[in-house]
Description:
Radius of gyration: 17 Å
Number of helices: 9
Number of strands: 7
Oligomer: single chain
Helix content: 40-55%
Distance between the termini: 55 Å
Bound molecules: iron/sulfur cluster
Amino acid sequence: MAKRPTHDAAKLIPDRPTIRSVRDAARDCQACDLCKLGTQTVFGEGARKAELMLVGEQPGDQEDLSGHPFVGPAGKLLDRALADAGIDRTAVYVTNVVKHFKWEPRGKRRIHKKPNAGEIAACRPWLDTEIELVRPRAIVCLGATAAQALLGKQFKVTAHRGEFIPSTLAPIVTATVHPSSILRAPDDDARHLEMKRFTDDLRAVARALAGKR
Length: 213
Ligand code: SF4
């Protein structure tokens, strides 16, 4: 019998979830209209028991096509910043608050469009389950959408980036910018400065994980 679409992602989560079974279940998610826009569900990836989880906003154009998170230009910049901060990318779990790419056409290009509160809420069971299963010691929110989803609507990354925020989500929780914002810096000097600040934020998390804060 054909599966009936559900509008509640929580109902798709298996009784005894594992990252693999939850990822498989998320492929069929139709809990919001973004399933009609994106090519596929882009679930989180990385070490099953990662100490560090990075949470972004949503997959981008290349992530949507490949089915993997943080593989486009912002992901490459993230890789570089992690390496410079002394963090092994293969020991990290990377994911997004929304698992489908939201976009609008501009000529032949697909331009990123910010997910709305309803889409973020609809997708939340997937992220909550990832956090529950991975149980990272540190969570870093990348950008305002992730930070406000996990730390509250009033949270401002511009004012509180790099601060360690008390949270029930993990022992160490903080927020910084999304690496895509560094790509949008107006010139080389601004880009270098933003990259340095981003790397410093990640380095502080690495120090905290090593018990050195
Ligand atoms: S964005 Fe999230 S809630 Fe919406 S269809 Fe995709 S996986 Fe489901």
